[in-house]
Amino acid sequence: MVVFRRELRSYFATPLAYVFIVIFLVLASVFTFQLGGLLERGQADLQPFFRWHPWLYLVLIPAISMRLWAEERNSGSIELLMTLPITLWQAVVGKFLAAWCFAGVALLLTFPVWATINYLGKPDNGAILAAYLGSFLMAGGFLSIGMCLSAATRNQVIAFITAALVGFIFLLAGFPVVLDFVRGMLPQALVDGIASLSFFTHFEAISRGVIDLRDLVYFAAVIGFWLTATALVLDMKKAE
Amino acid sequence: MITTKNLSKRYGEKLAVNDLTFSVSPGEVLGFLGANGAGKSTTMRMIAGFVAPSAGEVTVCGHDIERAPVAAKSCMGYLPEGAPSYGEMTVGEFLDFVADIRGLTGVRRRERRGIVIERLALSPVIEQVIETLSKGFRRRVGLAQAIIHDPQVLILDEPTDGLDPNQKHEVRRLINELSRDKLVVVSTHILEEVHEVCTRAIIIADGRIVADETPSALESRSRYHHAVSLRFERPEQLAEARREIAALPEVSEVEYDEREQRLTAVPRLGKNALPGVSAIIVKHDWQVPELHLESGRLDEVFRSLTQPVRATGNIEGTQT
Q1: B2-75+151-219: what fold?
Q2: Chain A residues bordering chain B (beta-carbon distance below 8 Å)
């Protein structure tokens, strides 16, 4: 799709793309090898690598998503895009896929970590593949949130901060600390409900190597929800 | 063909566009005039399908802009105000992007791309990133994207704003060339433009149509329509001429511009000041270095049409 191609190219037309990828790779390695102690654990798996992904995404994905619509609004090009013969959905989905694809490229470039572990031991590559898939889906979830919030403002900084904030809430909802805290106040069913809304819960499940249809449906639903919200926000306040 | 029917747009309390009904046919170049904030851009945006109307409808080439937006947008080229584009792309990439979205392929695509690059003299900057271009070039890039698919309907929101006189002239020439078989709507607040390019002018004030005529019909509304202005070389002739012209029955007033040493004989409504004035000149056998018959002053018509409405608008505002 034309919007997709333009958008993806525009990522690589600015230094943002390269800066992003470098920061992502550096942080991912630091977390994995230093904090995660991948080499010291003596286990042939990538748990220490994937465990940090939610936190990496929390900070880095809003940096990708913030410009998606805020920049179009700010430069006025949104008026051009919206008067070209495409539907609102084509624009929204095209932009989302481009950003997702970009995040996917960054994720794929972490392959040396995978190569290292394969060189040192005999990991379960099927589980690693599943974890990569989970990580990619989670990136999509963060992106869709960020995209919607980017559509609501013309200021990229606001788009970044609000996206990180909402992402944080989505992430936090699955943490034992938070769950224990609300458990005292709410019935169990609600606590489970909150936990099941969290990226963390579903990502954990997939990264253990079990691809459950429910987790896939969850991410698809999250992305679908936020993309619909993006389209609605755009439709309501296109010209502002 | 563009038709609007009872088109309105409300922003909160404010009615930006109020019940516009008009239609434009191929071959027409419609000038859309109004003071800043009169609702020009909002109307253009509703026609282009960027802003949804609060009430009423717009059809472009027979397609309702709300019910069949893609079909309507396909037959239309639009230059938004300020000619926005993607700053990080080169001119060539940007034109390719628009051509792709417009579904241009193969020979026709190459042909159209070549034509717009040549017409808008973009070849020297084709490899340049848009955000590094001058304002004039950016405007031309905006025009190029608007005409790349050879649209039947062309909507240009302030196409010459911020251009230098040469560039303005170029853009007007382009509009004149395009208008032969197409329908063009141009919004502007530059009145000379109306005369040069438009076959019809709509003036809006406070979101309403206050005039919809040909530019010459608009001019004839001016109190200077058929006024005569002339200069004298000798001050004593000027004083005498001023007295005698003021005494003519068809002249309502004589204005004197001290800086230019110019007299203007303003006729009474429906009268022509020229025969009387020239008779006086012939009688005295004066040497007149400059004399001409005015067709009317658009800026004066524009002011008289847009300001009274404003005033009543304010009064209504204070009453509520």
Answers
A1: Rossmann fold (3.40.50)
A2: 2-3, 5-6, 9-10, 13-14, 75-80, 82-87, 235, 238-239
Q: Decide: B55 and B7 in contact? Cβ < 8 Å.
A: yes
8 Å CB contact of B93 and A9:
yes
A184-213 residue pLDDT tens: 777 777 777 777 778 877 888 887 777 888
Q: Does B69 touch chain A (CB under 8 A)?
A: yes
**Residue of B4, B47, B294, B282 whose CA lies nearest to B151:** B47
The complex's ipTM? 0.83
Question: Do A2 and B100 lie within an 8 Å CB cutoff?
Answer: yes
User: What pTM was computed for the model?
Assistant: 0.84
B279 shares contact with chain A (CB less than 8 Å): no
The ranges assigned to domains in chain B are 2-75+151-219, 88-145, 228-293
CATH architecture, domain defined by B228-293? 2-Layer Sandwich (3.30)
Q: Do A83 and B100 touch (CB under 8 A)?
A: no
List of chain A residues whose C-beta atoms are within 8 Å of the C-beta of residue B102: 84-85
B145 in contact with chain A, both atoms CB, cutoff 8 A? yes
Give the residue on A whose Cα is nearest the Cα of B145: A80
What residue ranges do the domains of chain A occupy? 2-236
| CATH topology agreement for domains B2-75+151-219 and B228-293 | no
For B216-249, the pLDDT digits (tens) are 888 888 888 888 888 888 878 888 888 888 888 8
DSSP B7-50: EEEEETTEEEEEEEEEEE-TT-EEEEE--TTSSHHHHHHHHHTS
